[in-house]
Amino acid sequence: MDWPHDPDGEQGSEGRRQYGHAIIAKKVDEEGDFPLDRDSFVAEYGDDPIRIDSETVVPLEEIFDHVEESSFETIVDMHQAVGKGMRRGGLWFYEGADKFSRTR
């Protein structure tokens, strides 16, 4: 896929040092962007590459296709919804995630 920027550049996963939630969190201002509308966020960043693991990069929009909430009051709410959506969509590859998550 032709990405709007290098998935492993500074706008992406910073040379494969950051994955998933960390990359998405860099796109929001915790103080100024919340409450956050999911559709507006996806309209702005939907084509941006999100590195899921060392071999997998997907557009942000693909992750948010599995997020049910339409808005998020806080960044914590967003992270929880994104985590649930990633697990629902088979995009959560962290071994042992089920041991740390109460919602599956």
* Strands ordered across the widest β-sheet: 1-4
Q: Residue-averaged pLDDT, rounded? A: 88
From the alpha-carbon coordinates, what is the Rg to the nearest angstrom?
13 Å
- How far do the termini sit from each other? 30 Å
Structure, described:
- With 104 residues, this protein is α+β, with helices and mostly antiparallel strands.
- It has one domain (21-100).
- 35% of the residues lie in helices and 10% in strands.
- The chain contains five helices and four strands; from the N terminus they run αβαββαβαα.
- The protein has helices spanning 21-25, 38-45, 60-64, 75-88, 97-100, and strands at 36-37, 49-51, 57-59, 71-72.
- Strands 1-4 form a two-stranded antiparallel sheet. A two-stranded antiparallel sheet has the order 2-3.
- β2 (49-51) and β3 form a beta hairpin.
- The longest helix has 14 residues, at 75-88.
- It is globular.
- The mean pLDDT is 88.
- It holds the Pfam family DUF5785.
- InterPro entries: DUF5785 (IPR043903).
What are the salient characteristics of this protein?
alpha+beta; 35% helix; 10% strand; DUF5785
